[in-house]
Hints:
Largest sheet: 18 strands, parallel
Radius of gyration: 28 Å
Number of strands: 41
Helix content: under 10%
Shape: elongated
Number of helices: 1
Amino acid sequence: MLTLLPGCEPKENLVQTSGSLEFSADTVLFDTVFTTVRTVTKRLWVYNRNRGAVKTDVSLAGAAGSTFSVLINGDAGPAVSGVTIRGNDSLLVLVRAVIGDNGQATAAKQFLVSEDLRFRTNGNEQVVKLVAYGQNAYFHRADFITTNTTWATDKPHVIINDNVVFGGETYAVGVLVLPGVTLRIPRGARIYSHAGAFLQVDGTLLVNDLSEPNPFEPTDTVKAGNANIVRFQGDRLEPYYDDIPGQWGGIVFSENSRNNRIRYAEIKNSTFGGLLNVGETPGPDRPSLTLDNTVIRNISGATVSFANARASSGGGIISLAGNLTATNCLFTNCGEYAVLGIGGGSYDFNFCTFANYTPSFRRETSSLTFTNEDATNPLIKRPLSLSLRNSILWGSFEDELFVKNYPEYAELIIQKSLLRTKEYATTPAVIGAAGLNLINVDPLFKRVFFDTPDYTLQDASPATTPRRPAAGPVPPADLRNLPRNPNPSLGAYEHKR
């Protein structure tokens, strides 16, 4: 019996001297990777379709320490010999890449890096291509901006948090603009932030403030791609991540930050677009931000964010007693709030569209939420002023407006706007006299599908009916930089029949 036992070994364990392998893909592709930043790990499955086992030698064609690295059965290295794959079984190969700068200091375009991953089995050599598209960039790790600075636009900028020690405490810092210092980001700049990274402004941030870009495309302003827009987003450039929220932190304006202005910009896929924070002991001066012709979209709520290190909630703008002015702006797909104002502050919205659809989960918070109560002590109340004019406030929740303690506000003006509100539908103190605003009337956006939204207005939209605008300035052009009519449409988009 003992001499016969080896013959009973399962055939899938017996190593055969013929046969080849099959692969889940003939190419492992890394699409647009910033140089010096490690990629995600991709999987390559290697299949042995033979009845018996085979042994294979796996090796990278390049030298050790080159662009690509592999992990096979727990072994890392440029080459692994004698790997056994049982019959009708498979082997998982993990592949990562780190692309070096190609030396083209001013090259904004992608460049290609490739290498062969070789499998030698029973004298037969098979090859899987490893391919990565590299992108040179300016990298900002714990970058303290101490003098007035203008960022170049020939290459993208990538913000990555790094640990810095202050007073014995360790803080993660991406970019920090010091008090009294101005960072200017000109037209066409591209800003990408790594997971959890922030751009913190203790001084002043000026975005696209020097020139008027050309008109936008007439459909969704940010997907069509206008070279003049300044874009802020996460650094994962694969198509899958194009609309995934919560990929990075956001822009923080501290209690010392003044006179910030963002024009013709897109802020997307973050935990919050902007956070205005007056600190623990607010003084008479507050952080201030002016938004013009800007889109804030795909902002995560607290339930979906993994980068929520500075705010308890997700929001397009979160203001802790700050001052915010927004004109011709679109806020859309903000997971909890489009704008959240806590502890007082000043808020002025004119010709804005809040189209807050959240398809990934059920939202039960109002898109525009304000309270004069302090964030940590509700017994402390501060002055709050709110003006909403010539705007559209709509979304997937029946109460898109919440103004807590509104009789105590220093000013509350809501005029010539279209609102979705159940709470205040019959409250003149909030929505004004009958007919002053359009209440719970569908604005009839052209398309609200998550993947291809278009928040311009249909011909039948009640927001297109000619009307005299509310008191205050009327911008000469809309979000797309197209001219406004003498009696303009509501919202960020002027309707063109």
